[in-house]
Structures are given as structure tokens and as C-alpha cells.
Amino acid sequence: MTEVASAPAVASTPSVIGRLLGDLAIAYREVTDHPGLDPARKVQAVLLDDSVGALMVLYTQSHLLDLNRLADLIGRRMTAVAPDRLQLLLDKHGLSLLPGLPALTNSPCLYEEQLLLQPSLLISAGEPGILLEIPREDFKRLLSNASAGRFGVPLSTIELNRDHAGDDGEAITQAVQAFTARRIQQRLEATIELPPLSESVRKIMRLRSDPEVTIDEVTSVVETDPALAAQVLSWASSSYYASQSKIRSVEDAIVRVLGVDLVINLALSLSLGKTLSLPKDHPQSSTPYWQQSIYTAAVIEGLTRAMPREHRPEVGLTYLAGLLHNFGYLLLAYVFPPHFSLICRHLEVNPHVSHSVIEQHLLGISREQMGAWLMGFWEMPDELAIAVRFQHDPDYVGTDAQFPNLVCLALRLLRSRGIGQGACTPLPDALFDRLGVPRDKAEAVVGKVLEAEVLLREMAAKFSQN
């Protein structure tokens, strides 16, 4: 029995696709999408455009679409069509996803020639979870008016450093030197020229490490920074915290609503965020930076409280790991400004590929490596650096594994609800077992957080204003 034959058939192909394939006399059968299918047989379709016009590009999910190679091949620098324009096309045909069918659009088509090495291809039926298996000879007829070329990069050739965090500093230095005109040996911090931490950040970090910290000390530090004080008051007055009366002072906000731990973590995250500002460019349809951070932190807080008390890490520190998990994204934009836009464009046309793989391919380093290095450089708690570095590894069992495990679980659960970027991948039972949180209880945590989605967005918007 083949891998496709073992998957249950689902007869839910949209009528417009069925009629189109019928008119073209293309044989197909319906297959349920699942992780066990060979990505080398799954066709990824993307619609690109530039000032000349649109182009449909087809390649397999075992490859990354390299826009630089594509530009060299066709002499045009193309990017993904705007989401609203793509949505108009899909709505016209009553579809949710773009199938790899050139006849569906009026634009020319270019396909990766390695597509036709497979005995049969799997294309989206236009709806999530449903694929159409088409024999190679029939698929060739679909491409009769298309052009072939080599522009994809096999994902198997892009190697990530998943384990050796000690090598990250050298890797970042090499990546920076690869994009600078002066290829000289320098210390990493001199090469990157990081902005120094503000005095308010240093004070907050000292408070964080003091187990005897008092409300008066926290109030004093917050009040010395007018912008930070205004933010704390704004948080405390937010509908999310449902304060019963007007908040009149920072001390009021800490004592009656937020608490010392939350104020310190939120203040530290906001102050660090101001050190490296949000990039003006970003991938289309991506979840806004602070929105992703707030959602992740809220889910992690719920997951941490759901853990058995005897194995539960410090809630405040896991919450902070959620707020700072994507800080490497800001550093990436800061260190590689001319190339950050190129990363964004590749993220748009490779939705099946993780950002880490794309960054490794283009820069030789990932945002997780850079973010973890920065946490160490700024002398943040080791648990934060580990959480950032190994957040996408569900099998990580090293030092302080609870922290990256919680971030990984929160990100995957949110992604399954349409929040975040990248492909949805299954969560192993072992991850839930290590944390001591049953799968249904974890799903309930996410559901509860998303019930307050509007209020969380309001809170994220307050971060973005600074």
C-alpha cells in the first residue's frame, strides 16, 4: 500500500476545480493531507508580480524558492502579490488556497524542473487538508504552456545549528562579515555596534534579580521614566485586567492590579523593545511583533500554571521568555538592514518553510541564534537565552528545558489557531509529558487566552505606540 493510498479519501474538491480538471481530461484522486506525505511530491504554488505583470511559480515543498536565483533566471525581481489581490482571485473561484493549476489564472507559469521527477504530484484542491494526486504524465499536460527552470534550493542542503549554542557567536560574526565591505576580524560586539542598555533597563534587571524587592523600589524605578510610567498606568487601566476603579498612580497600578512581578517583566520587555525599534518592513500577512509576543506570553503563563506545582518554573520568568522569544527578529533587522527586506520577501513565497531555514540560507544565521547570543551579551538570565535559542525544538531536553519547551508548545498551539507564521507541525506527546500538561488542558489554555483576543490586541497596541 502506498503512503497516499493509506490516507483516507475525502470527497470535498471544490466544484470549480473538479470542472476544470474534467474539461482538461486530467485524471486525479482526492487525498487527505497529513505529515507523512513526501514533501517532494507536494506542489507549492505562489503568485508573484512586478511592474511587468504576474507569474505563477510552482515548486515542491522539499525546496525553498530562492528569489535571487529566480531573478537571475528570468531577469525580473519579483515578490509575492499583495494578500488582498490574491484574496480577490480566490474569492472569484470560491477557494481558500491557491492550487497549482496554471489554467486557473491568466498569468504565465514557471515551474521547477525537478517537479517532473516524481511519478505523481500532489496539489492543493483549494481547501485546507485536501490534496489531489495527479499522475506525472497528466501533470505534464497541465504545464504545456509553462516554462521550466532551476530556481529552487533543496531544504536538505540547508543545515541548521540546532545543538551547539557555543558556536553562535562565531556564526554571527561570519554572517556580519559576509555583508560588510570591510572583511576584517573584529569582536562580535564591535562588529554589530549594539546600542548600550539604558539605565532604566539596568535598574529593572537589578530589581528582577533581587528576591527581596519592594513595591517602593519598583515604583521609584518606573516613575523615573515618564514613558514607562505612563505605559504601566495604561496597562493597569486596560480592559484586560478589568480594574474596578480608576488607577491614579504607579503604586496604585502595582498594588491593586498588576503586581510587582508582572510590572517588572512588562517594563523590562518594553524597555528592551525600545532599544531596538520595530522594523518598518515585515512579511505580508504576518502577525504583528508585539501581538505575537503578548499572545505567546499569555499562553505560556497559563501553561506554566497548569504544570504540577513541584515541577513548575518561575511564572514570571517563563512569561518574560514569551515576551522576548522573537527578539532576534528585531536584531536581525538592526544588523542586516539592506537584507532584511529580502528575508521578508522569501518568507512570503515560502510559507511551507520555517523562517530559521530561510535565514540560514540567506545569512548563515537564524534569529534564534542571534537573539540568544544577545540575551547572553546583555547578561539576561540564562533561562531566557536557552528559551530563545531552542524554542523551535520540541525534543530539547538539555539544561532548563522547561523554558524552551513552554515557548515551543505555546507557539505551536497558537499556530494551529492561525496565529504566527510558518507551517503547522504536529506536537509530540513527549513534549506534553515532560511539562506535565495534558494535551486537552493545553488546548483549553489557548482557548481561554483567545477568548480575550480583542483585549490582548489592545494591550499589544500599547506596546507598539512606544
Strand-helix topology:
Layout: H1 15-23, E1 29-32, E2 43-49, E3 54-60, E4 63-65, H2 67-74, E5 79-80, H3 83-93, E6 109-112, E7 120-124, E8 130-135, H4 136-142, E9 147-149, E10 152-154, H5 168-178, H6 188-192, H7 199-208, H8 215-223, H9 226-237, H10 250-258, H11 260-275, H12 289-306, H13 315-324, H14 327-335, H15 337-349, H16 355-363, H17 367-377, H18 382-389, H19 402-416, H20 429-435, H21 439-451, H22 453-464
Parallel strand pairs: 3-6, 6-9
Antiparallel strand pairs: 1-8, 2-3, 2-5, 4-10, 7-8
Report on the architecture of this protein.
There is one protein chain. This protein is α+β, with helices and mostly antiparallel strands. The chain has two domains: 15-135 and 146-157, YbaK protein; 165-195 and 276-464, Hypothetical protein af1432. Helix content is 50%, strand content 9%. The protein has 22 helices and ten strands. It has helices spanning 15-23, 67-74, 83-93, 136-142, 168-178, 188-192, 199-208, 215-223, 226-237, 250-258, 260-275, 289-306, 315-324, 327-335, 337-349, 355-363, 367-377, 382-389, 402-416, 429-435, 439-451, 453-464; strands at residues 29-32, 43-49, 54-60, 63-65, 79-80, 109-112, 120-124, 130-135, 147-149, 152-154. The strands form three sheets. A five-stranded mixed β-sheet has the order 5-2-3-6-9, with helices on one face. Strands 1-8-7 form a three-stranded antiparallel β-sheet. A two-stranded antiparallel sheet has the order 4-10. A hairpin with a 5-residue loop joins strand 7 (120-124) and strand 8. Helix 7 (199-208) runs antiparallel to helix 11 (260-275). The longest helix is centred in the middle third of the chain and has 18 residues, at 289-306. It is elongated. The relative contact order is 0.10.
